[in-house]
Design brief:
With 109 residues, the chain is an all-alpha fold. The protein has 2 domains: 1-33; 37-92. The chain is 69% helix and 0% strand. The protein has 3 helices and no strands. It has helices at residues 2-32, 40-71, 79-90. It is rod-shaped, with a radius of gyration of 36 Å. The termini are far apart.
């Protein structure tokens, strides 16, 4: 009889602690726990994909500039490109030139 009474007392003393631990677990998982949208592996994958897209666009821009620089090097210069650069650098235009303005974010090439 003593054993059962001691066992019952121990269980009754553990009920508040168990209840508090259960409530803490509930709030941790449903309210304050890790957010699935902030999964570090998924975020790292998204960042990696964005960096790869940036790299592709940077390589395309680099190829464009290399093509333009190569046109200004060597024994034969591209006269049109040279004329364009001189006019752009000195802000000159001829009286019979047609000038087309691009929007501020628009690219010529």
């Amino acid at each position: 009889m003593r054993f059962w009474r001691a066992l019952r007392r121990g269980v009754v003393r553990m009920i508040p602690a168990f209840t508090l631990l259960t409530l803490a677990w509930y709030f941790w998982t449903n309210i304050g726990g890790p957010d699935p949208s902030r999964d570090p592996f998924r975020l790292r994958g998204e960042v990696l994909a964005q960096r790869e897209r940036d790299l592709v666009s940077a390589k395309a821009e680099q190829a464009t500039w290399q093509r333009r620089v190569e046109a200004l090097r060597g024994p034969v210069l591209d006269r049109d490109l040279l004329d364009e650069r001189v006019r752009a650098m000195l802000n000159w235009s001829a009286p019979n030139d047609q000038i087309f303005f691009y929007p501020p974010g628009g690219r010529l090439f």
